[in-house]
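Could you please consider the sequence and fold following this short note?
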Amino acid sequence: MSLTSVIVIPARLASTRLPRKVLLPLAGRPVLWHTWNRAKQVSPDVPVIIATDSEEVAAEVRNWGGEVRMTPASCQSGTERLACLLNELDADFFLNVQGDEPFIDPHLLRNLLYRAEETQCDLVTAVTPIRHRADLFNPNVVKAVRASDGRAVYFTRATAPYQRDIAWADWIDEKTHFRHLGVYGYTRSALEWYQQQEPCALEQQEKLEQLRFVDHGWNFQTVVTDYAGVGIDTQDDLRHASRLMEQGLNPEQLQQRPSTHEQVALTTLLHEIEALHALLPRNRQEITRAVELILKASGKVVITGLGKSGLVGHKMAATLASTGTPAVFLNAAEALHGDLGVVDKGDVVIMLSNSAATVELVKMLPSLKKIGVELIGMFGQQGTQLAEEMRVVIDISASREACPLGVAPMSTTTNTLAIGDALAAALMQAKSFTDADFAVYHPGGALGRKLLLRVRDVMHDVSELPELTPDATFDEVLVAMTQKNLGAICPLDDGRLAGIITEGDIRRALVKYRDLNLRARQIMTPKPIHIGPDERLGTALEQMESRQIYVLPVVDGSQRFVGLLRMHDIL
């Protein structure tokens, strides 16, 4: 190698996720030793140096015979730590290897140095094919986009490149998607430039330091490797690494192998996400027409179907009914035996069927026409007899079901459910449906309780509370506080609120005063925040949360004390 190269291993002791990880034992040696030992195998002509700000790390490295250089504790990244050594190291090219990579492949490090010399590039890094769909969509896995000549075009946490004409579930392609490994090689000039530059916008947005070089057009080459990396970030990682050491695995065997269960689950989700993405473009006008039809109708919405579609229909009807659009579900089979009587003239009937040929739905048509209803279909097939009878047909088909066998309805039922939610949301907006309206239909829920109930409905009435004046003794205050166990008492002056004493006030008095020959007025908070009995519970809760208090005195319009409200009474 004509380039004079050096391998630098940044080693920070104060790791956030796993403190002291570089010195934690792994197969009888510190993690850092294993990284250093594998880096030493690259070439006798390439020195390996540990860069650290920790005297403890430095002492450990010297103990096993390694070379160490001290760097400032202010360094924010391995690149910064390495750049600080430029004046100390006589080299043309610097290879940055993370200290928590005890399985780093010496062959990969050699290839990085060879690539740098061969291409005369400014920087070089390693990438590995993404073989696991979870990695493809995980923002913590950094993706590298490569040009045909191996140059790094971009690094991103997003999924890239985007394959427009291929289903998401089929995106795994070992020639297209690559994961970036955190090993870098830099020329001296690249590092000198880096020291002088402020972070660019892309770097700050993605939180990826390598984008500073990409943004300014440096020649950034990549080397593809099968080594997938085994970094140490958690105790689980350390245990996993210990097992690998015991098994004596080679770096080539450390490819990530996804769980079959996880793979199938992710593929299912990707199929359903893809199906949802395709819904809107082909249904814009139909959704609008369906909403307008329901708004103009004089009656309710009746949703009908069988099987899985029927189960989805139950949920759709419940959502519509609870958000201001009267709706019921009608089992299609039961409808043919008398339950059709629930349908009235002026109703809108929404039929759910993937095949658009469900016999029970077809048999309902003559009666529905006679009653006089509007018909909306959510079908996976078009052009059937049933579809032709609809005023509006919404296409809920999917290019394929998410079911591994392709037979159980999954993508299509998800599509149907999503369209139902979309209709409900559009109708809510059209009707100016508010949270107060929502509370009317949900009196038993937390929102309904806060919006419908008034303070007087749940407060502790003054008749239940002990009577104390500001001149009450400390002993009397303690007895009253203990009797009711409400967390506070309110001294009154001729029936009017004089102040409030909380359990916290009692504790502070015990600490502050040696002589407890006190009166209530000496420990109470005078003129406390209070609320009226006719205010909504939601208003009371907002006051409590904004002021970080848990008890509110209740005062009527004539400023007389009428009760006490606790946050516990609201929640």
